[in-house]
Amino acid sequence: MATMLINNVPLDEIHPFTPGVNEVARLAERLAPIMLVRTKAECLDLPEQIFRPYWIIPSEELKSGARLLLDTAQNAITALTLSRELSDGFQYERTIEQTAYCVCGGKVSTCPHCHGSGVIQREERILHEFPTGKDEALCDLLDEFDDDGRIIVYAGFQASVDRCVRLCAGKGWDWVRLDGRGFSSSLNLKSVDEAMECFQNRTNGKQIAWIGHPKSGGMGLTLTASQVTVYFSNSFDLEDRLQSKDRNYRIGTRGSLIIDLFQLPSDKVVTDRLDAKQRLQSMTMGQLKEAWNEVDSTIPSDIRTRLAVV
Ligand SMILES: [Zn+2]
């Protein structure tokens, strides 16, 4: 290894190496007779975080639709976005309307909306919804954790958040919804804090599903009353996944179960990449196709058998 030079003087001569003393170990040794010493690592007795993949058999129609998207999309992000929408049971039809006028009236050359032209291209989205196997999967999970009465559900699109709210309400659960549009609830609550208190202290006497966009996980919420976090779908954002999965993960809790709903290969590709702490934005079409085919060929054998029977 090359010696580092500072003003042509080897670093060793400026700062000679002297063996360090393990201050923590020495302090622990000296304090041991008079008190119980524990290091931070020993104290951070975090419960286990268990991941459970929940595989759903996609219909042939859904599978071929996703394959078509993969083969025709211009880039990986578009292919992933559209197939994730498909798996969540909807597609946005994007239509561009050019006649909208900017609030700045075209008088601000640095306007971030129109860049001084005074006209903005307003994108309108029309929502087309259809049934997805994820509906039944979420309802099954609500049944499974009915006795526990608390569940956290994340969905990566506003349309999917709304869908989860409808599904939970349909199963008779109370719900709290938190996403980019703000906060709402089936309970008579005025704020997120009130909702959190009700969720944690079980003051409503009924089951509550906490439903949010994964980005809402960054709000420093504590939702330890639930052991279960269900990802109906993820967002693209790595930080969203990291923050949202830890909302019920604290010292002294009962452990946390993270359930990912997988239906199309895209669902697993996104989750795998986020859990490997890799950004999806940098994914190329080649990488996506490779990952997609790999997931497709490693779908659990019992699912594959059932698929062959169907
Ligand atoms: Zn403007």
Characteristic terms for this protein:
about 300 residues; alpha/beta; seven-stranded mixed sheet; two-stranded antiparallel sheet; 11 strands; binds zinc ion
Distance between the termini: 62 Å
User: Which ranges are low-confidence, i.e. pLDDT below 50, for 5 or more consecutive residues?
Assistant: none
Secondary-structure content class: alpha/beta
Q: Helical segment tally?
A: 12
Present as ligands are:
zinc ion
Q: How helical, in percent, are the residues? A: 25-40%
What Rg, in angstroms, do the CA atoms define?
25 Å
Shape from CA axes? Answer: globular
Mean pLDDT: 86
Strand order across the largest sheet: 3-11-10-6-9-7-8
Characterize the biggest β-sheet. Answer: 7 strands, mixed
What fraction of residues sit in β-strands? Answer: 15-25%
Question: How many DSSP-defined strands?
Answer: 11
Order of helices and strands: EEHHHEHHEEHEHEEHEEHEHHH
List the helices and strands and how they pair.
Elements: E1 5-6, E2 9-10, H1 11-14, H2 23-31, H3 40-43, E3 49-55, H4 60-72, H5 76-87, E4 90-101, E5 119-129, H6 133-144, E6 150-154, H7 158-170, E7 174-179, E8 182-185, H8 192-201, E9 208-212, E10 228-231, H9 238-244, E11 256-262, H10 265-275, H11 285-297, H12 301-309
Parallel strand pairs: 3-11, 6-9, 6-10, 7-9, 10-11
Antiparallel strand pairs: 1-2, 4-5, 7-8
Zinc ion is lined by residues 102, 104, 108, 111, 113-114.
Overview of this protein structure:
The chain contains 12 helices and 11 strands. The protein is α/β, with parallel strands linked by helices. The strands form 3 sheets. A 7-stranded mixed beta sheet has the order 3-11-10-6-9-7-8, with helices on both faces. Helix 9 (238-244) links the parallel strand 10 (228-231) and strand 11. Helix 4 packs antiparallel against helix 5 (76-87) and helix 10 (265-275) packs across helix 11 (285-297). It is globular. 32% of the residues are buried. The mean pLDDT is 86. Bound molecules: zinc ion. Zinc ion binds at residues 102, 104, 108, 111, 113-114. Zinc ion is lined by residues 102, 104, 108, 111, 113-114.
